[in-house]
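Q: Fold this one first, please.
A: Sequence and structure below.
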Amino acid sequence: MIAADELKLFEASLRQAVERGSLDAALDDVGWFDAIASDPTIAAPVFAVQGELNIASSAIDDVVVAALGLPPSAATAVVMPAFGLHTPNTESVHGIGTRRLATATDAIFAVRIGRDVMVGRAPVASLTQQPIAGIDPAGGWVEVTAELTEGEAMPWRVAVKAAQRAIATELTAAARTMLQLAREHAVERIQFGRPIASFQAVRHKLAECLLAVEAAQATVDVAWSEPSEFASAMAKAVAGRSAKTVAKHAQQVLAGMGFTAEHPFHHYLKRTMVLDQLFGSGAAISEELGAAVLRNRRLPTILPL
């Protein structure tokens, strides 16, 4: 496992590299494909940078491919389950892809065969693709469909776990940036002769944002240090809920400024709304975890936050 100080250095290098070009290009320059195949924790700083700077890449494809035990490469894309789901609910391919699908030759997908989730591979040319404009056109998301029903037994649950950790990291970083944007506005905005940051109502909203961000960060840290299925699911659920909390309060602090196209807040709001739906929404995961507790009649082990 890569040491914490080396991960910090890698994150700083990525942040500088992004200023000169795309994140995908920066990752290619630092040997990303070999790195993610040998140590999945290298994904943590990558998704932290994505969330902080509100940029998009196809790194999630490589996280999933590597977790399946396959060699990640620029030629391999992933068809993720439809929004809100972490496993397919149909016996054919219907899901979401990243911008990688525009240049890849092969696609990895999960398909439900009976009660089992199997993993298959198909040429990208055999898939039907439709760009998703929606609320986050800069994300490069693509809706994918295909009548493919064959697959083989591969560790899809391991791939889901890896993807949830990565996306939770991005959500948390984005939420922290939204909090920073709201704080800066509160300090600079003068009303009744003083900064609105001095008003108790504003301070309470910013405090709730900070609490939400720190809660998400704590669960994300646990998910990376002790990557169990439960910890990864909890990280995704808490990060999604925290991002919504921060977005709501930050919008109230920013007031009219938060609705303007010139202010960067709306980009983070839109991206987090989409990310919350990838590999299981926060609400759906929470419901699943609660149902599992009732079904097993046993509380899960408390996370060492």
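Q: Good. Now the second chain.
A: Here it is, same layout.
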Amino acid sequence: MEPTIVERPTQPYVGIQRSITMTTFPEIADRLPELFGWLGRRGIAPAGAPFFRYHLIDMARELRVEAGIPLASAVEGEGEIVPGVLPAGRYVRTTHRGHPQELLGVTADMLTWAARQGLRFDKSDTDEGEAWGSRLEFYLTDPAVEPDMNNWEHELLFKLAEA
């Protein structure tokens, strides 16, 4: 799907953050059931699909990634489960149906498209890697309903820099 530019309001969420490598990504992905359980025990319904938020990216060394679940209103966290707010603003958005491993290629295509449009993302280069204001991967497919990962639907949203 061709990327589009969308406006997003602020969105409260709860999440768990980890520093990982590409090979240890399951360390954060495996935390999503814990988040859902935490919400369920408190009678809090998710307000959207689970996501991964990339805060810092250095593909050769480390990624600082957060597994999160959007909420209708802010809550207090507990232990490793912390509240947050996804920032409002203009985002480049694209969707993809296929295996999650394909998202690296989809991301590269989206970054190329944005560069051709002259768009700048809310990110900066640091000694530790690329620091992102908001770079999101939403997982729109419930694995319990569709176990074939080749049929999963994803939404990528990368926040644009302020004008």
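Q: Anything worth noting on the second one?
A: The helical segments are 26-29, 32-41, 103-117.
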